[in-house]
């Protein structure tokens, strides 16, 4: 699977690398290659190039440790999903957010019958979280 929108373009290997680094503190190219690359018939150079592209896109950071770079995810999974959704929404329409929310609800209902209950609980939790934050700022 690839993700390609107006601002974000990620190939299957880049997505696999991000998924791997979301589970780890950081890793060198050779480590990522051993874990992901060899099983998908990618060469070490291909994995290195993909990690370099992710670094240039601002999705990975890197730090020179001894002889090699250690790469870390700069965005977490939820931030990445949010970026992709935002980009898709901006690409397809300039309508109000009500339409986005309706489309999301329709998708949730079609994909899982328990999704509405889960969404209600998540909304409740987020409201409580926001109320607690605003209460902290007032005290």
Mind explaining what this structure looks like?
- The protein has 139 residues and is mainly alpha-helical.
- It contains six helices and four strands; from the N terminus they run ββαααββααα.
- Strands 1-2 form a two-stranded antiparallel ribbon. A two-stranded antiparallel sheet has the order 3-4.
- Helix 1 crosses helix 2 and helix 2 packs across helix 3.
- It is globular and about 50 Å long.
- The termini are far apart.
How would you sum up this structure in a few lines?
The protein is mainly α.
Q: Which terms would index this structure?
A:
mainly alpha, two-stranded antiparallel sheet, two-stranded antiparallel ribbon, 4 strands, 12% strand
Question: Secondary structure elements and their pairing?
Answer:
Layout: E1 3-4, E2 9-10, H1 12-23, H2 29-37, H3 44-56, E3 60-65, E4 68-73, H4 77-92, H5 97-111, H6 115-138
Antiparallel strand pairs: 1-2, 3-4
Helix pairs in contact: 1-2, 2-3
